[in-house]
Protein 1
Amino acid sequence: MDKEYLAAAAKIVDAQATDNPALGVPVDPDVAEFMGAFVEPALDLGDLDDLDDVLGDPETAHGQR
């Protein structure tokens, strides 16, 4: 979908939600993503531990030997 369509659809959704906050407004997933509805999860400590497996020994990482 093009950016102009997404922006126009987002304005309509915003207007509907503002007019009646209790109303559930169905939104196309592409429009919702354009509006920032989906958040990417941040790294957690487990993800960082997994990086050790990929990068190797932390003592020798980053060119330090």
Protein 2
Amino acid sequence: MVPFFLSKQDTGIDQEITMYKWTVFLRHSGKAVWRTDEPGLVPENVIMNEYLLPNGIFIKRLTYNKDRSIAWIHVDTTKTKLSEFYNWDEALDMSSKPECWRSFYFFKDKNGADWWSPKGISCEADIQDLGNVAEVFEDILRTVT
């Protein structure tokens, strides 16, 4: 399951560039997907009652991607107290490698073409069990819009 939130801001002259900030909740200091104990697609009520609510995560919408066996969880940031979680910078400094919120930035021009993204970057731009963050971001963008 992939809890996330997304913000966007138009920037530049004549608002020609849109900056997206995609923030995702990950385990192992921001490097791997948060997993359930159950295999396969887990019912929404189980995800809510056994994973999200006990951890103080509230959602706007949950969408399943059956091809990838993933639940995209669009987090409600007005109800979820983000300050009660580690951010990526804090998690990197800890030897325990805790779960944390990690942000990625993407820039698109007014035609929707990539102005800059980590698409061509491997290694640091990959999330274990998901792949390249730019490709995952495109899935998320389709889910939310």
Protein 3
Amino acid sequence: MPATTTLPAANDHFISLELAIEMTTRYRENRESILATNYQDKDILALSETFSKDAVTTLLAVGDCAAMRIYYGMDAAEKVHAILVPVNAVNEDILPEISILEDEPVILEEGLRCPPSCPPPSDLNN
């Protein structure tokens, strides 16, 4: 895949509540059927993950952070998780050295994963 050094414009991210409802509904309806049979009914794909504002603010405050990227990873129990990293102005991940020091860039995971810990009902998760 070709790499790009261009970040999306801020106004490219906004969608209507109607479109968000349509997209989250489609995902909920299809999240099991898109998996191979041996992965179905194991909550491999989360419905959502919740991250604290303080953790996200810390990530966005890293050095020359211009954006945030979400990767998807899989834990040892084969559950998919969002992994958030800061990104600089030329679209490069800002990553810590392997030996993590306290003042190095941060990587977020450990979101509150639904299921099993789901938020109260809303238009996006009913």
Protein 4
Amino acid sequence: MRGVDLARYPFDFDLTFAALLMGADGHVYHRYGGRDERGADTWLGERSLERVLTATLAEHARARPASPAPAARAPLVLETVPAFVKRDKGACIHCHSVFPAFYEEARAAGTWSEDQRWVYPPPGRIGLDLERDDQARIRAVRAGSPAALAGLEPGDRLVRAGTQELVSAADLMHVLHEFDAAGGKLALVVARNGSERELSLALAAGWKRGTALEFSWRPFKWGFTPEPGFGGQALAPDEKARLGLAREAFAFRVTYLVTWGDNARYGEAARRAGLREGDVFLAVDGQRDFASLDHFHAWWRLEQRPGAEVTLELLRDGERRTLTLAVLP
């Protein structure tokens, strides 16, 4: 990302793949890529990419150069952001370094709010699942969700959200990213049974806030505190069985305590509580239904509050033990 104008090329900087389909004047027709907690390739495939490319060419031929150029924005490169400057070593800048730098800047300025954590909400945040190959087509609608209350149905085709024509999941996620976290009504146009319908998607205040599982895949999570101060490697099913655990149970072997860097206090607290490398972690305060280690780390950062004390359940040398750990600020 060194030298990349973040104002001109905005996208979900946590992604493994993202594409902007733009005109020469900077107008973004469509976006492609995006993901959710199901995997990095949730919305990636040759057929869906072909659809986006084809739609963009048709839109360009139809609408350009007649439509006005987008409003100019002041250039912004990450290596001029103070929160990043202090750690810039002159090497390659990874995409996932962008959100943490903005987070630190907002905190320093006193402008940070919890809603800012929830960048580029996936379709599931409003209750939609989209087809993978034809991402304008709704595959499923979750009962009781904002999408269901707006009248969206499986089989509908998304045509437009606000002023953005929709061809990909990334198009919708960008619209949701830009929409006010305080809520409001988003105008939708859908095609159903050969005709277009106008619908209104009502979103309540705080609608962007998701679950720990939704947040778990993002590298962005590592910049938040409090953190547990330890981590490790998930146990394979056979190893869990040898320890008398259910093969589907969540369990990981502690392979490190964070006793270095800016957040060393968390690892030191875990060590003082009695945690050791080699222990097998099972649960915290009875919570054990984590889908992955990433889910565990995201949950801790979202749910734990400084000043609390939590109970860790673990195995050591085949024996079950409990430890009490103080959650530090």
